[in-house]
C-alpha cells in the first residue's frame, strides 16, 4: 500500500516540477509526449487507487496551486484530452463509445491537434472582454491585452444570434515560417532561440510589452466554445464550429465528420503524411463525439472529456545538413558508417547522428558532404536518413566514399562477398579495436570497473601502459600518477576498483571476452552448463551444441575462440597474471522472491536521489539483473528517476514495465542494501 502511495507521490512531485518549468519558468525540458506519458501514469494510478486522490489535495488536481487571481476563473474548466499513441488505443475508444450507444449512429468529428498554447476568450454581447491562458484548468492567467493584438482574434463578433456570454476555446499558434524568421532575428542578437512553435507562441503571448506580441504574427485556431447564457442551442460540435466561423473565427480546414472507424483512421494517416507540408505544427488529431447530447451523456473524468481523444502522430521528417560520415570501428573490426548531422529537433529530441548501416546504404543514398538530407525516426526512435535532396547539392561537393583502409590503423579493409560487411582484420593491433575490447571487458555486464572510462583507456593505451585487458591489473600507482588529470586520490580509486573487479562470476568473464554472438544471455547459459573455466576450456563442439538455446553458429564461434592459440594464452594470462578468481554465481545473486531483477534486462533514465546511479547499477547487477544503456524490445524494466529522457516514451511504446525510484528502493531495502 505504502509503495503505491510513494510511487504516486513521486509522480506527483515530478509532474509539479515539470509544471513549474513549463508554466512558471517557461522552460520545459520534457517533450509533450513525455509529459503526457507521466500524466497518464499518474491518472491511471489515481483511478486504480481512489484513496490517493486525497493524498495530494482535495480537488485531486495534479497541478500545484498557482497563485492566480480568483477573478481569472474559467466559467467552465479547461480540461485536457486523453491521448493515445497508436491506432489500437483509438479503436478501443471508438468501440467503447459505440457500445455505449448500441442503437444509435454515432458521428465523430476529427480535427487537427494544434501544437500551440490554449487560450480561452470570453465574449459578452459579442465583445471580447477577457482572455485567459489555461493555467491550472480552473484559474488562468489574464492575457487580454496580448490576445487583442493577435491577428485573427475577433474583438467584436459579426453575424446573427450572437450569445450573450460565451467562452471560445482554441490554440494560439505560430506558423513554422514565422518561427524560422523569429529565430534568425533572435539568433543574430545572440539571444536564446525557440526550440519549437509552441514555446515561441507561449513566450510571445505572455509578453508584458504587447508590441512584441503583435510583432510575432500569432494566429488563433478555434476548436470549440461554451455558451454560458444559452441564446441558441446547437445539437452538434460541427454545427457549433460552423457558427464560430460565421462569427469571424478561424478554424482549420482539415476536418472530417464520420461514423466509420476506417475513415477516421485514414484521416489520421493522411494528416500524418501531410503534416510536414502544413504551415503550422500539429502533433496529432483530435476525435470528438459530434452530438452534444451524447457528449453530455458520456460526461467527464476529473481531467478529460470521455467523448474526445487525441491520437498522436508518430514519426516526423525533417531536413538537415549532412556534415560528414564517421566510419566507426567496432570491437571485432566491422566498420559502421554513421552520418554526422547538423543537430535538428525531431519528435522531441535533438538528432545529431544517424546510422548508415553499410556500404550499400551509402551507395544507395549517393551522399555528398553538406548534402541536405531528409531524416526521420524509425518507430519515432531510431534516426534514419530517408533521402537526399540532390538538387540542393553544392558544386564541387565531395562524394562520401567508403574507405579502403582502416581509419584507425590504416590496414587494408576486408569486404565480404556482397560488400555488406567491411572489416579491419588487424585485431588488437588496431588502436580502436584494442580500445573497444578493453572497454567491453570492463563494461557493466563484464567485469565492471567503474570509472575506467573510454578517455582513460585511450590515454593508457597511447602512453604505452596497456595493450590488452590483463595489463590493467598490472598498473602501478607511480606510473598512473604521471598521467594527465590524475591525482593521488583518483589513482588510488581506480586501482581499488580494478582490484575489486578481479573477483567475478564465470558468466561475466565469458561475456567480457567479447566473443561474437556471446552476449549476456548466452554467457549465462554457457557458465551454468559448464560450471568452471576448466570444463569450458576442455569442452567439445558437441558439448556446446547440447546447451539449450545455444545455436550452431554461436557454438562454433565460441569453440573457435577458446581453441585459438592466441586466445588460450589471452585467457591464461588473465587468470594467472591478472589474478581473476570466480565466485559462485548462485551465491552472488540474491534469490529473493521479491527480486524483480533476476535475469531481467534493465535500463535506467533520469536522475536519482536516494542512490547514486552507479550504485543502482551495481546492486541491480548483484541481484542478477542485466543492465543496458538503450531501450529495445527485449528490455524488461525501465527504472525512472527525475527528469527522465526519451527512454520513457520508447519504453511506453514497447509496453515495458516502469519502476520509480521508490519502487526500487523498496526492493533494495528488502535485500538489505543501505541508502548510498
Ligand atoms: S478540445 C475538453 N481540440 O490540446 C476538450 N483541444 O491536450 C478540450 N488542443 O489544452 C480540448 N488542438 O489546448 C481540443 N482540436 C483540438 C485541439 C485541442 C489542440 C489542445 C488544447 C488542450 C490540449 C489537451
Kindly describe this structure:
This protein is 38% helix and 19% strand. By secondary structure, the chain is α+β, with helices and mostly antiparallel strands. The chain has five domains: 2-64, Helix hairpin bin (Helix Hairpins, Orthogonal Bundle); 70-293, DNA ligase/mRNA capping enzyme (D-amino Acid Aminotransferase, Chain A, domain 1), CATH 3.30.470; 318-422, Nucleic acid-binding proteins (OB fold (Dihydrolipoamide Acetyltransferase, E2P), Beta Barrel), CATH 2.40.50; 431-581, Orthogonal Bundle (DNA polymerase, domain 1), CATH 1.10.150.20; 589-670, BRCT domain (Rossmann fold), CATH 3.40.50. It has a five-stranded mixed β-sheet. Helix 1 (2-24) runs antiparallel to helix 27 (661-670) and helix 18 (506-512) crosses helix 19 (520-530). The chain is elongated. It starts with a helix and ends in a 6-residue tail after the last helix. Bound molecules: 2-(butylsulfanyl)adenosine. Residues 79-81, 111, 113-114, 118, 134, 171, 223-224, 286, 305, 308, 310 line the site of 2-(butylsulfanyl)adenosine. 2-(butylsulfanyl)adenosine is lined by residues 79-81, 111, 113-114, 118, 134, 171, 223-224, 286, 305, 308, 310.
Amino acid at each position: 500500500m505504502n509503495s503505491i502511495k510513494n510511487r504516486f507521490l513521486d509522480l506527483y512531485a515530478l509532474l509539479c516540477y515539470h509544471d513549474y518549468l513549463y508554466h512558471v519558468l517557461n522552460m520545459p525540458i520534457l517533450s509533450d509526449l513525455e509529459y503526457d506519458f507521466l500524466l497518464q501514469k499518474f491518472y491511471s494510478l489515481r483511478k486504480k487507487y481512489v484513496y490517493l486522490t486525497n493524498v495530494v489535495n482535495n480537488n485531486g488536481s495534479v497541478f500545484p496551486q498557482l497563485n492566480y487571481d480568483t477573478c481569472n476563473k474559467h466559467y467552465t474548466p479547461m480540461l485536457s484530452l486523453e491521448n493515445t499513441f497508436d491506432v489500437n488505443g483509438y479503436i478501443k475508444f471508438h468501440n467503447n463509445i459505440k457500445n455505449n450507444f448500441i442503437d444509435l449512429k454515432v458521428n465523430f468529428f476529427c480535427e487537427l491537434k494544434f501544437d500551440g498554447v490554449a487560450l480561452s476568450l470570453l465574449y459578452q454581447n459579442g465583445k471580447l472582454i477577457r482572455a485567459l491562458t489555461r493555467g491550472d484548468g480552473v484559474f488562468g492567467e489574464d492575457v487580454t491585452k496580448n490576445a487583442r493584438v493577435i491577428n485573427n482574434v475577433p474583438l467584436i463578433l459579426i453575424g446573427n444570434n450572437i450569445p450573450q456570454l460565451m467562452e471560445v476555446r482554441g490554440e494560439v499558434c505560430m506558423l513554422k515560417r514565422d518561427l524560422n524568421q523569429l529565430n534568425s532575428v533572435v539568433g543574430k542578437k545572440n539571444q536564446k532561440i525557440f526550440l519549437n512553435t509552441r514555446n515561441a507562441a507561449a513566450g510571445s503571448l505572455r509578453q508584458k510589452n504587447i508590441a512584441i506580441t503583435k510583432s510575432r504574427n500569432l494566429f488563433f485556431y478555434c476548436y470549440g466554445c461554451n455558451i454560458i447564457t444559452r441564446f441558441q442551442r446547437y445539437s452538434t460540435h460541427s454545427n457549433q464550429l460552423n457558427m464560430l466561423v460565421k462569427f469571424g473565427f478561424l478554424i482549420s480546414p482539415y476536418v472530417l465528420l464520420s461514423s466509420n472507424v476506417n475513415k477516421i483512421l485514414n484521416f489520421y494517416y493522411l494528416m500524418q503524411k501531410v503534416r510536414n507540408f502544413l504551415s503550422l505544427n500539429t502533433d496529432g488529431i483530435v476525435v470528438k463525439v459530434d452530438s452534444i447530447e451524447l457528449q453530455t451523456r458520456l460526461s467527464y473524468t476529473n481531467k478529460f472529456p470521455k467523448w474526445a481523444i487525441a491520437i498522436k502522430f508518430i514519426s516526423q521528417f525533417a531536413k538537415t545538413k549532412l556534415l560528414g560520415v564517421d566510419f566507426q570501428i567496432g570491437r571485432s573490426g566491422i566498420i559502421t558508417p554513421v552520418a554526422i548531422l547538423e543537430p535538428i529537433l525531431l519528435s522531441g529530441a535533438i538528432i545529431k547522428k544517424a546510422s548508415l548501416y553499410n556500404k550499400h546504404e551509402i551507395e544507395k543514398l549517393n551522399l555528398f558532404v553538406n548534402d541536405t538530407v531528409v531524416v526521420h525516426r524509425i518507430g519515432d526512435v531510431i534516426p534514419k536518413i530517408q533521402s537526399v535532396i540532390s538538387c540542393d547539392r553544392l558544386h564541387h561537393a565531395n562524394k562520401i566514399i567508403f574507405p579502403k583502409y582502416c581509419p584507425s590503423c590504416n590496414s587494408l579493409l576486408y569486404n565480404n562477398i556482397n560488400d555488406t560487411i567491411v572489416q579491419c582484420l588487424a585485431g588488437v593491433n588496431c588502436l580502436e579495436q584494442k580500445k573497444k575490447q578493453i572497454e567491453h571487458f570492463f563494461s557493466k555486464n563484464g567485469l565492471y570497473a567503474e570509472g575506467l572510462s573510454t578517455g582513460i583507456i585511450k590515454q593508457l593505451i597511447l602512453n604505452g601502459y596497456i595493450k590488452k585487458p590483463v595489463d590493467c591489473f598490472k598498473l602501478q600507482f607511480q606510473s598512473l600518477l604521471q598521467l594527465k588529470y590524475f591525482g593521488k586520490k583518483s589513482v588510488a580509486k581506480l586501482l581499488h576498483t580494478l582490484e575489486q573487479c578481479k573477483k567475478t562470476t564465470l558468466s561475466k568473464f565469458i561475456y567480457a571476452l567479447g566473443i561474437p554472438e556471446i552476449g549476456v544471455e548466452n554467457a549465462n547459459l554457457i557458465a551454468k552448463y559448464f560450471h568452471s573455466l576448466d570444463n569450458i576450456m576442455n569442452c567439445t563442439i558437441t558439448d556446446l551444441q547440447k546447451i539449450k538455446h545455444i545455436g550452431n553458429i554461436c557454438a562454433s564461434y565460441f569453440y573457435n575462440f577458446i581453441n585459438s592459440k592466441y586466445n588460450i594464452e589471452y585467457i591464461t594470462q588473465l587468470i594467472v597474471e591478472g589474478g581473476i578468481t570466480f565466485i559462485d554465481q548462485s551465491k552472488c545473486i540474491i534469490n529473493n522472491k521479491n527480486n524483480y531483477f533476476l535475469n531481467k534486462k534493465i535500463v535506467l533514465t533520469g536522475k536519482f536521489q536516494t542512490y547514486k546511479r552507479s550504485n543502482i547499477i551495481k546492486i541491480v547487477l548483484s541481484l542478477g539483473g542485466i543492465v543496458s544503456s538503450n531501450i529495445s524490445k527485449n528490455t524488461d524494466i525501465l527504472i525512472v528517476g527525475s527528469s527522465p529522457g526519451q527512454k520513457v516514451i520508447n519504453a511506453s511504446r514497447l509496453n515495458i514495465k516502469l519502476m520509480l525510484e521508490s519502487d526500487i528502493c523498496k526492493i533494495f531495502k528488502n535485500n538489505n542494501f543501505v541508502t548510498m
